[in-house]
Task: structure prediction
Amino acid sequence: MPSQRSSPMQQTPEETRKTPSAVAEETLWSRPECQAWTGMLLLGTCLLYCSRVTMPVCTVAMSQDFGWNKKEAGIVLSSFFWGYCLTQVVGGHLGDRIGGEKVILLSASTWGFITVATPLLAQLGSGHLAFMTFSRILTGLLQGVYFPALTSLLSQRVQESERAFTYSTVGAGSQFGTLVTGGIGSVLLDWCGWQSVFYFSGGLTLLWVCYVYRYLLNEKDLVLALGVLAQGLPVASPSKVPWRQLFRKASVWAAICSQLCSACSFFILLSWLPTFFKETFPHSKGWIFNVVPWLLAIPASLFSGLLSDHLISQGYRVITVRKFMQVMGLGLSSVFALCLGHTTSFLKAMIFASASIGFQTFNHSGISVNIQDLAPSCAGFLFGVANTAGALAGVVGVCLSGYLIESTGSWTCVFNLVAIISNLGLCMFLVFGKAQRVDLIPTHEDL
Result:
C-alpha cells in the first residue's frame, strides 16, 4: 500500500504552523512502513550496484573484444565517476525538497534503461571506447542522485535510534548487488558473453521500478514531482538553512574529508579487484573472487549497524561509536588492503580482500550516519557535497591506479594508495569529528 503520510510536497497550512519536532514526528514511518521500505531500498541498492559493477566484471572480456590496454580500460572504468560526481548535490537537494523516494524511483527507471541499452551502443560504430565511456558517464549521472536522496529520505522518515541499523541494512545492498553480478554475471559472462550481464542487471532494475511504483508510491505525488522537475518550479517555501554556519564547522569538513577518502578507496577496490584476481591468479574461477568478498561483507554490514545502535543504547557517546566504526571501516580495512598487495597465495588474497571489503562496510554506521547527526534537516544536500568530493577523488584514484599498474607492472602500489587515502580520512575524523547538530540557526547570529 502506498504511504499516506505527509511528504515535503503535501504540507497543509495546519502542518506549517506546527513545531519542527511535531512535523518531524508525524513524517516518521510506522514500523510496517519502515520494514517495507527498508526491504525495497535494500533491493534498490542491490540493483544499483548490479548495474554499477557490470563494467568492472566485464572489463577483461570487453578489452579483449575491443583491444583496450590498461590505460584505456581505466578511462572506461573511471568515466562512471565523471558523471557520478555531477549530480550528488542535485540529488540531495531534490530529496530534501520533493522526497527521496521519488528521486530514487525516477533515477532508477533511467539508469536501468541505459544499462540495458549499453550493448546496443557498442554496435553503433567503430568508436567502442567513446561509446562505452559515454554510456558509463550517463549511468554515473543517473546513479549519482541515489545515495544523497536515500540519506535525505532516512533522515526524515526513520527515528534517530534506528538509523544506523536501517542505513547499514540498506547499505548492505551494495555488497549484495556486487555479489549477484559477480556470481551470476560471471556465469553469464562465460556462457552468453558480456552483453548478457548488462541485459540482466538493467532488466532487473526496470522490474524493481515497476513494483515500487505499483505498490509503495503514491501515484499523485510522483506525477506532481515529475511536473515540478519539468517546470523547474519551487516545491515549497524555501527553508532558511545556515550554510555559512554549516561550512564554518570543522566537524562538517571532517565528515566531508572522511566520506571522500572512504568513497575513493572503495571505488578503487570495486573497479580493479576483478582485474587484479584475473591477472594475478589466471587459473582461478571468476565466480569465486567476484562473490566471496561481497558475500562476507553482507553480514559484516548488518553487524556493524546492530553493534552501533547497541553501543549507543548502552550509554556510549554517539561520536565515540561513530569514531570506533571509522577505525574499523578505514583503519583496519586499509591494513588488509596492504596485505593484499604482498601475497602470492590465492587463498590469502581472498582472505585479505574479503576482510578489507567487509570492514569497509562499517563506514555505513560511522561517517554515513554522522552526516545525519550533524544536519538532519539538510542531510541529503550535505551528503551530496561529501559524495561529490568522493566521486571526484574516485575519478582520480581509479585513473591513477590504471596508470600505476601500466607503468610499474605491479599491483602493490595500488593497494598502498588505498591504505594512504583511507588513513588520511581516518585521522581527520578522529581529530575533528563531532556528532552535535550544526544546522540549527542561532537566534543571536545574523546569517
Summary: Residues 1-24, 443-447 have pLDDT under 50 and may be disordered.
